[in-house]
Amino acid sequence: MSDASLDLLRLQFALTAGIHYLFVALTLGLAPFVLCVQARAVWTGDAARMRAVRFWGGLYVIGYGTGVLSGLVMETQLALNWSGLNRVFGSVVAAPLAIETAAAFFVESAFLGLWVFGWDRMGRWAHLGCFAVVTGTAYLSAFWVMAANGLLRNPVGFEMRGGEAVLTDPLAVAFNPSGLLGFAHTAVTALFVGGLFVAAVSARHVLRGTDADGVFRRGVRTGLVLVMAAVAPVAVTGGTQFRFTEGPTPTTGLTYDEAGIAAVEAAWEPSYGWIWDVAGGTMTVVWELVVLLCLVGAVAWIARRLDRWRWFLWVLVFSPVLPWAASVGGWVYRELGRQPWTVTHHLTTAEAVTPMSAGAAVVSLCVFVSAYALLAGATAWWLVRVARLGVGRGPLREPDQGPPAEEGREPVRF
Predict the structure, then answer these.
(1) Where does it live in the cell (predicted)?
(2) CA of 413: how far to CAs of 57, 129, 395, 407, in Å?
């Protein structure tokens, strides 16, 4: 296969995975926030907080739907464009991804459905428990995805038999340090995304003077607290991953011997090295800017000016761009650091892709990326529209009280 086809397929995967992760990071960050707000509302019986749960929960459901749909397309893309990876490592990589599919597409979706349609139809604690399961399975799903990804960078838990990888130690795959560190970093960076998203939406309503029952003033504070809590863990979990992104990682039972490894890496021309540098620099700069944002926010909070410094509220409105950029940059940095290997010292990227002509690669790129761009654009528009409506107006709003008593309440609409 030509280098042009390989580059096109790599570009396609990078773009689609990056778009997919934008919404995954949002839902991972929003889930614990919604859970905590609902727990507080259930415990105190505060109707205003429960209306806030409906509002933030509506935004979560929109992001979740796009994350699931784009994830399904990602699996189709893996089957079509990366047949070499499936042929050699399919039985090993499939194990964590199968568990992830069960967690995300069955358990999580089922309990989210119960949560969405269970308002006023089940006990308040049972309803809260449904979203607790949703939150737990969301992070469990991320854990298994990163277990599969960690195996690519630090291959463990299998043996090569007849040119195919055979799973021999599931626990080694599950608790691979590369995957564990990747999961920890993903979890805390998602709090960056969720916290600043909450703060941004809340700040816009405070600026507009549409703060119902103080919901959005609390949102600004809670969003900043989430970000502040994640600042140090983001740096720690990110920094400890460098051993898995820079330089070779020793592995056993290699498909390539030392001479073969040296030949592959010598022949590879790192034409994307500058992208790798930009991705790494983006993560560092964004982290520093977020730290500065937290310091200014802390000063404003202590001085009781958090709701009055309009310039700072406007900064918060646009702040979600920072963690999203860093999240995509971090993913690019992690994946490019493994090149020219798809599975380090076992399978090159050229061997992992499906052989196809440059024309077919162009068609695949255009079809998949166009579909993802349309989906992302529509979802972003919907998120912004619902966010601007405010409490009591989103897709999970309380049913209308119009019908006569004998007709009963209208069902919750979504």
Answers:
(1) Cell membrane
(2) 14, 21, 7, 17
Question: In tens digits, what is the pLDDT along the chain, a chain of 414 residues?
Answer: 667 888 888 888 888 888 899 999 999 999 999 999 999 999 988 888 888 999 999 999 999 988 888 888 888 888 888 989 999 998 898 888 888 877 777 888 899 999 999 887 888 899 999 999 999 999 999 999 999 999 998 898 898 888 888 999 999 999 999 899 999 999 999 999 999 999 999 999 999 888 767 889 999 999 999 999 999 999 998 888 776 655 555 555 667 777 888 888 777 766 666 887 888 888 999 999 999 999 999 999 999 888 889 999 999 999 999 999 998 888 888 888 888 889 988 899 889 998 988 899 999 899 989 999 999 999 999 999 999 988 877 788 776 544 434 333 333 333
Output the six-digit token pair for 372. 């993802």
Q: ω before 340 within 30° of 0 (cis)? A: yes
Count of CB atoms within 10 A of residue 163's CB?
8
